[in-house]
Specification:
Number of strands: 10
Structural class: alpha+beta
Distance between the termini: 50 Å
Strand order of the largest sheet: 1-3-2-6-5-4
Radius of gyration: 32 Å
Largest sheet: 6 strands, mixed
Number of helices: 7
Helix content: 40-55%
């Protein structure tokens, strides 16, 4: 049956339809169109309201994560201060001071199988942030002993030991976040060992701020979101609380296509030498 035939039949049927039936049909059609339009408008309104609500919830969560992370960073400084006040470290420094004076270049390395006598017990260390590197410096701020938690750890870069560490000691900065030329970011916490109010030595705890560091922090937050740290110089993730979902090296643009992002640049004054973005992520699909 051709289109012209169908059109003719429709026109014939419409002419024979009474005005009442025509009015009913038009009313039904207009009602359906109106209902579709209203449903579409209401759906868009609900989506907008839901989107705003989710963004507000993400912002609240991001602020909470940021405060917890700030507290986590500050606790490193508190831990090293308590560590440096222990009687055991003071007695050790007193016993080693003649050796340090007689041997200006003397250094000793310790590991997990051969621990230094000034290292606290495991029960005490459990309360500290996991810092795999702990250094003991003499009163002249020269490195005398170093402890590596495991032998598999890569050595600390020379730029960190020979440049960043002396700068921090000279500036009397107790907590600092520094990046080496390779982009690895470290948290450095320093405290003086005082004997009769005289600085006889210094302790430095150094923790790479990496996925392991961030994962340990995020366990304490008791949330289901993801936190990540982004290097502001290349806009790439260098630490993630859930590396199986947000991998190291992911760009900020790639994150934006899958996650809602909320966060800001870490700002601890002069203690950070590169721009670092601390962000909380929520999957868009959820």
């Amino acid at each position: 049956m051709s289109v012209n035939t169908l059109r003719s039949l429709w026109q014939l049927g419409w002419r024979r339809t009474t005005l009442t039936v025509k009015a009913v049909i038009i009313t039904i059609i207009m009602g359906i169109l109106f209902w579709i339009a209203m449903d579409s408008w209401q759906t868009e309104q609900v989506k907008t309201i839901l989107h705003i609500r989710l963004l507000n919830e993400l912002e609240i969560q991001a602020q909470s994560d940021r405060l917890l992370f700030d507290s986590y960073i500050r606790s490193q400084e508190q831990s090293i201060n308590l560590f440096a006040q222990r009687t055991a470290i003071s007695q050790y420094v007193e016993s080693m001071e003649p050796t340090w004076i007689a041997n200006p270049g003397w250094q000793k390395q310790w590991n997990s199988d051969n621990k230094p006598p000034w290292l606290p017990s495991k029960s005490v260390m459990r309360g500290l942030i996991a810092a795999p590197f702990i250094l003991l410096l003499d009163g002249q701020k020269r490195i005398r002993e170093s402890f590596y938690r495991t032998d598999s750890l890569p050595p600390l870069p020379d730029t960190l030991l020979n440049q960043a560490l002396p700068e921090l000691l000279m500036a009397n900065e107790n907590n600092s976040i520094r990046a080496d030329p390779n982009g690895t970011v470290y948290l450095i916490s320093i405290s003086a060992v005082e004997i009769e109010q005289v600085q006889k030595a210094f302790l430095a705890m150094i923790a790479p701020i990496n996925t392991e560091f961030l994962s340990i922090f995020h366990v304490r937050t008791e949330i289901n979101s993801i936190v990540a740290l982004i290097n502001g110089e290349n806009n790439r993730v260098f630490a993630s609380s859930k590396p199986n979902k947000v991998m190291v090296g992911t760009t900020k643009e790639q994150l934006a296509s899958h996650y809602r992002i909320s966060g800001k640049i870490l700002n601890y004054g002069s203690t950070i030498n590169i721009p670092l973005h601390f962000v909380t992520l929520a999957p868009i699909e959820e």
